[in-house]
Amino acid sequence: MKRVFLMSIFALIATFSARAEDLPAKLNFDRYKGMLDHSPFAVASAIVAPAATPNFAKDLYVANAAKSPDGDMVTIASGVDKEFKKYLTTKTPVDGYAIASIEWSDKIGETKVTISKDGQFATLTFNQSILTQPMPNKPLPMAPGVVPPQPPTAQRPGQNPGVPAPTPHTRGMIQRNPQAVPMPTPSSGVEQ
Description:
Blueprint: H1 2-16, H2 33-37, E1 60-66, E2 73-78, E3 85-89, E4 98-103, E5 112-117, E6 120-124, H3 128-131
């Protein structure tokens, strides 16, 4: 038994004592180049998109649209530049902007207008955020020299304009049930 044990130890020592020259040489990676060049699993190269031209109608919306016997009319405005407004008709272009088509809708704010400029087309709709805002209470413009009417001042009856009103009498807090008496509860037993 001792011999078997010693022989196995010598075999292990002989295995680990192999010299570096006996080991195979490191393989060169160039031998895989053919497989990499013609691999069916290669990642396709990304297609480079052409430089995007700026969208002329990026911030534009339809501010107003109307039908007329002379031709349809549309007002376009910009959400960024508050001074930008173009009044377009179906007959003639204005500053390069022209109406290509109008899709009329009976519902408020759902009419779509396709406009063109320099060969580019864009479909515009009404600005929904403006449509949902409440109407401001702006006074109507008056002619020069006209004084707008003043609303009447509300005066309570019986009050003199120069005399200050007395402070109203307020009542203190009243406690509810300061000494609450517990209510008897009906017995859960059967009545006789």
